[in-house]
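Forwarding the complex inputs:
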Amino acid sequence: MRDLFSSATQLAQQFRAGTKKVGDVIQQLFTHIDQTEPKVQSYLHLFKEAALEKASELDEKFKKGDPLPPLAGVPISIKDNLMMTGTPTTCGSQFLKDFVSPYDATVITKILNHGLIPIGKTNMDEFAMGSSTENSSYQNTKNPWNLNKVPGGSSGGSAASVAAGEAWLSLGSDTGGSIRQPAAFCGLVGLKPSYGRVSRFGLVAFASSLDQIGPITRTVEDAALLLSVIAGHDANDATSANQALPNITEINRPLTGKKIAVLAESFDKVIDPDIQAAFSAACEILKSDGATLETVTLPALKYVVPTYYILAPAEASANLARFDGVRYTTRDESATTLQSMIKKSRGQGFGPEVKRRIILGTYVLSSGYYDAYYAKAQKVRNVLTAEMIALFEKYDAILCPTTPNVSFGFGEKSSDPWQMYIEDMLTIPANLAGIPALSIPCGQKNGLPIGLQLMSKHFAESTILNMGHRYQQLSDWHLKTPEGITS
Amino acid sequence: MTSPNIELSRTIALAHLEVSSDESDQYIAQLKNILSHMEQLNTCDTTNIETTPYVYQSEMTLRPDEISQPFGDVKAANPQHLEGPYFVVPQILGEGE
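Prediction (whole assembly, two chains):
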C-alpha cells in the first residue's frame, strides 16, 4: 500500500523501467479507492473503465518502446469545474447535476496528450466558493489526516484524493487560495501559477481576473512537471500569456545568493503560535541552503480580505448570470413565465454561500455603491500589487505561512461567513497581484499539516519551484502520509 | 461608505434570485456584517490610483480569423427542454412573477 503514496515522478520512472505496469497500478488504485472512498469522499465521479482502457493502451506502447511523455501512465484526479468531454461537470452544485461537458478544457487536452490517466472528478465547494468544501451540495469530503476535520477548499476533493493515496496528482483551481489552502491542510504541495500562465478555457468561471488552474501534488518536483504539461499560451483564452515556459530543469540548484523576504505579518497574533514555530524552523532550513532571509512588512495586507470579497463576488455575480434554468442547469417547472422561471430556478439551484456572494456582488456593482465598493477595491488591488512588485525588485521571493490556522472541524466556521473568509488572508495576495505562489508542507500540529507559502514575481514559477524543491531535499514533511486511512 | 443599509429586495431583483423571507433576514444580517468589514478600505489612500480590472496586462495575442468550433455541441450537454435546435422556455409575457 505504501506504493500508492510514492511521487508521480517515481511512478513514471517505474513505468519507463518496466518494473510496473500501468494496468496493474490502476487496478490496485481502484481497489484502494473502494476501501477509502466511503470514509474520505473525495470523488463525485469515477472513470474506472476508461482508465483501464487507457492503461492497456499505454502498457502496449511501453512494451513496444514507443517514446512517451514524462508523466505517461500517472493517475490524476480532476476538480469538478473542469470540462472533460462526456463527463459530468457539476461544480459541486445540484444546479448542474445533469450537465455533461460538451468539450475538453485546454488543460484536459494537454494531460490526455501527455498520457496522464484521469481517475475521476473531485468534490469542491459549490462553484469554488468556500474554504472547507462544506459548501458542496453533494457530500462532505474529509481530511485524510483526521476524518473529523475539513480538507480545506475549494479544491478539497482534489487535495483529499492525493493525500488519501487515491491519485498521484490532481488539477485544482485557485481564485483566493483554493489550491494552496487545501494543499496546506492535507500535507501536500499546491501551486497557483501566474495569472495567464495556464489557459482557463474550459474552467467554469468564478472570478475571471483571479482564477487560475494549477497542480496539487506530493512533491515540488511533481508540481513542476505537471505545470510544464499544462502551461502555455492558448488561442481559446484571450488572457493566457504568450510567455516562455518555466525552466524546471534546474530546480535543484542550491539557494546560494537567493534573497527571500519574510513577511513580518507571519508572526502576527492571528497566526497560530505552532504555525509560527514551524514556519521559523522552515526559514532556518532555507537559510542553511544559502538563502538570505530578511523581514519585511506588506502594509496593504490588512486590506486584502475586504478587497477580495468585493472583487470576487462582483465578478461571480456576472459570471453566474449564465446559469438561468434555460440552458445548462436544472429548471423549476412550476413557473409560468420566463422571468419567474429564471428567479425560481436560481433561487432553488444555488446553495446559500453562492447566493450570498451573488447578492453581495450585485450589491457592490449596483448604482450608488459601485464607486464606494467596487472601484475602491480595484484601486486597493493596485496598491497591493505595487507594494509586492516593489519587494520583488529587491527579493527573489516572499515567504509566509499558507494559512493562519490548521484544518478545523466541520461546522466550526459555518455560522459566521467572515470568520471563514479571513482564513484566506495569506493566500489572497497572490491572486490579487496575479503572481505565482507555492504551498509546501512544513510541519504539523496535533497531527494536522502546516503549510509554508512562497511567492515570486510574475512568471517566475521556476524561482519558487527551486526554493520549494530544495526545501524538500532538506526536510521530510512531504514524505509523511496519513496513518489510519488504509486501515 | 457609511453604515450600509442594504436595499436587499432591489439587489435580489437585480440578481434574479428568489429567496424566502427567512433566507432574506439571514442574508441581511450577514451582509451588513460583511460590509462593515469593507469600511476598512477607507483607510487606504488611493489618491491618483487607477482602477483596472486586470493587474497584469500581458500582450494580447489574437488568434487567426478562422471559423472553428472549440465548444462542441453545448445543446447536447443538457438536452432537456430542447425542441430541434431551440431551448424551450415558458412564455415571456404573463401575469405576475
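The two ends of chain B are 33 Å apart (CA to CA).
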